[in-house]
Amino acid sequence: MVFLKGVRHVMTPASYSDRHIGPDSKETAEMLGSVGYPTLAALIDAAVPEDIRTTTLALGPALTEEEALRKLRSYAQQNVVLQSFYGQGYFDTITPPVIRRNVVEDPGWYTAYTPYQPEISQGRLEALLNFQTMVQELTGLPIANASLLDEATAVAEAVGLMARTNKKGNRVILDRRLHPQVVAVTTERARTLGLEVEIADVSSGVVGESLIGVVLAYPGTEGDIVDVRGAIEDIHSRGGLAAIATDLLALQLLESPGTLGADIAVGSSQRFGVPLFFGGPHAAFMAVTDKLKRQLAGRIVGVSKDAEGRPAYRLALQTREQHIRRERATSNICTAQALLAVCAAMYAIWHGPAGLRAIAERVHQYASDFAQAVGDKVVHENFFDTVTVECDAPAIVAAAAEAGYLVRSLGDSKVSVSFGEGATREDVEKLAQLFGATATESEARPLPLPRTTETLTHPIFSSVHSETQMLRYLRELKDKDLALDRTMIPLGSCTMKLNPTTGMEPITWPEFANVHPYAPDSQTAGWRALLDEMEEWLAEITGYAKVSVQPNAGSQGELAGLLAIRRYHQANGEHQRDIILIPQSAHGTNAASATLAKLRVVVVATAPDGSIDLGDLDAKLEKHADNIAGIMITYPSTHGVFEDTVREVCQKVHAVGGQVYIDGANLNALTGIARPGEFGGDVSHLNLHKTFSIPHGGGGPGVGPVAVAEHLVPFLPTDANAVDLTKETPINIGVPTSGARYGSAGVVPIAWAYVAMMGAEGLERASATAVLNANYLAKELSDSFPVLYTGKNDLVGHECIFDLRGLEHDTGVSATDVAKRLVDYGFHAPTLSFPVAGTLMVEPTESEDKAELDRFIAAMRSIRAEIEEIAQGSITFEESVLHHAPFTAESVSDDEWGYAFSRRQAAYPVTSLRQGVKYFPPVRRIDEAFGDRHFVCSCPPPEAFNIDD
């Protein structure tokens, strides 16, 4: 804590930490004066229990931005980037520059938060609705979600859906033709749920009883296309469900799964313009029949109407449903891959139905020409883009690499060659030469199940004919939203802070972006060195023995951590340990993840001060002692305080043989100050898209590494392609959590850059400043809105909860009303009614400067004054500005104004709003109940937006 000793701390002018941390030394001193402490060190001493404090991290000196870029470039240059013809679920694609520059690299898109406040998220909600509509039309199924994580976990989610829907069976059949990583991840997830898994050839149908369903490959991993209708009919006759793992580009030419009779379609949208990224992030998809819509995992964007009757978008059905249903949730997924889904949808709009079909036809033509040249060595007669050839595989793979190509070996006697969007006629000729053949142009090979239905018929997919139109459409959608580049996003537990542009820049470098996840180690030295260093840094920061970055979302990190606990107990012969203790205040994903890990949830009560009720904990431990697998706690607590009993809680659980899982969602307040692995944790998941500055991207990408103590290291996630599919995985090792060995590796350079440029002192100062900013807000607003929980010395952690329940009782003004009114002040709402109903949880983060904090304080005080008008009887709640907020530009400029308050009060309640560019939401308050009653989750026709004056 060396740097915290003085009030003023001036680092090198070029230091990144000075640019990342909002308050400068003068502002820091002023805020410290407000909360009553002379230095940051004194504040941390007062807020954080002394017995959990750690020593300075051993991370080496902080790098400047230029030095970090040079180091990243050196890593990139160690990778060997071949033209990828490998396939196995990951394909060569071309990201249109207009999308790369104006979505992936635009902070208006990548710094947005999940659209839980729909009035300020209409742009990204529309983009995600485009994604859903695209998937629905291509799969021929009526309901699709707004993306999942990767194809392997999407198939696992499909099996989970089958199990929830069909409770009479306990067996699932996986097509042997599925990609190996899909089979590995799905098999382990299914076995964890207690399902029996059979991997079989289902080309001629399915047999057996007690079947919940079958997952079919279309096309198969070797590229072959078989008629799956017989297998679908067979499973339906047995009362089971049929899922098809498919390819969106192939579905331009192949019959849709819905037409074939499938109940579920899953896959990845990666080849719709999303780079290989060494395995991710990529947006997966799932589409289902109407009868399955309420069991669909992930998020669904729906259509409702606003207060003026205009169509408006919102999250439907699954909106934060983990927090409501907890262990009964359909999925633990919280962060999906929204930004990548937006990219895929825009790719479809950019090319349109004719353009996509042309790409698919060209890919199939090149594959056909290659197969024609190779001749009778081709293994499968029917294929779309992947040709498998009998040959001396090691020799061919080596020769291909020498020629600049990456192809896939299938044992020693077969190689598959997968053609992607970037393939050329010259590539066809060179690849044929490797097999001793000469390629010529030929007729495209007929497909066995040609498409009979139109694709992408909605007008949005035919609306863009020029780059100008695309630029303006992307700008129109972006301008409808509030993102971090425009305003503070004060969401508690979600840590919306600055994302380093220096870290964002390298992720699209070809040496990082164009590397296939299954490229041999000889070609990925740079990637692996960067990832190894990141894992070592995270282990140092958390105090654990080892870290895996494989989990590709926080929810997957949670699951990986709980599976490590479960398998540890089973390996020790304690199979009865299946109870996980979870405090009432915990994130809802905790309970959902526990259920997926086949653990029973027992809730621990919360004490009046917001801490874990030690008496109730003791009672639960005594009652379930022999069955305790562990406890899940969040630290600082979800109530926003540093509980001084955390070591005692850990010791009590350890005393009965349980493990301690510490949710890393709030590591933003601990980094450099305390380490979970030192004060009692056995395992934690981290959120690189929170504490370590990877952007949220409107709801993803996410990376959720799992960190473990030494005794749990054997149970860290394993490589899906190293799993022996012929036998059950031994209980004394871990299981894969995603299809790629390093998960969503493509965005890890952002977090690497953040840690490298902050250094130990910068990270420590960031945590301390996050605590200062939260306490400053709590102090300044406590007279207006009571702070629900405080810790030692009446201090909060890095976030605080404002209690509006008393005000609602007295005036009718709810936390929701305040959240909507904040939009008129140009702010994203805080976290609404979590973890306590009727409250707002605020986390300012370390990136917000004092001026922005003061602007938020002024807005909240102004809203409090508006509430006071109701309390004093000056206006009724029903007539108040709060009841009708937010207001669009059109509504305040309408000729008619039938409200009891002025237009100025509605739109410009504080003077500062008249000094800049005022944000107006595109819609009024959305009718959530109407959307629930009228479920629509595809793009409405253009005429739906025409409202007569």
Automatic annotation (TrEMBL):
It comes from Corynebacterium matruchotii ATCC 14266. Residues 766-887 form the Glycine dehydrogenase C-terminal domain. Residues 18-435, 460-717 form the Glycine cleavage system P-protein N-terminal domain. The glycine cleavage system catalyzes the degradation of glycine. The P protein binds the alpha-amino group of glycine through its pyridoxal phosphate cofactor; CO(2) is released and the remaining methylamine moiety is then transferred to the lipoamide cofactor of the H protein. GO terms for biological process: glycine decarboxylation via glycine cleavage system. The glycine cleavage system is composed of four proteins: P, T, L and H. Belongs to the GcvP family. It comes from the Bacteria. One of its GO terms (molecular function) is glycine dehydrogenase (decarboxylating) activity. Keywords: Oxidoreductase, Pyridoxal phosphate. Its EC number is 1.4.4.2. Its cofactor is pyridoxal 5'-phosphate. The modification N6-(pyridoxal phosphate)lysine is found at residue 690. InterPro entries: GcvP, GDC-P_C, GDC-P_N, GDC_P, PyrdxlP-dep_Trfase, PyrdxlP-dep_Trfase_major, PyrdxlP-dep_Trfase_small. It catalyses: N(6)-[(R)-lipoyl]-L-lysyl-[glycine-cleavage complex H protein] + glycine + H(+) = N(6)-[(R)-S(8)-aminomethyldihydrolipoyl]-L-lysyl-[glycine-cleavage complex H protein] + CO2. This is glycine dehydrogenase (aminomethyl-transferring). GO terms for cellular component: cytosol; glycine cleavage complex.
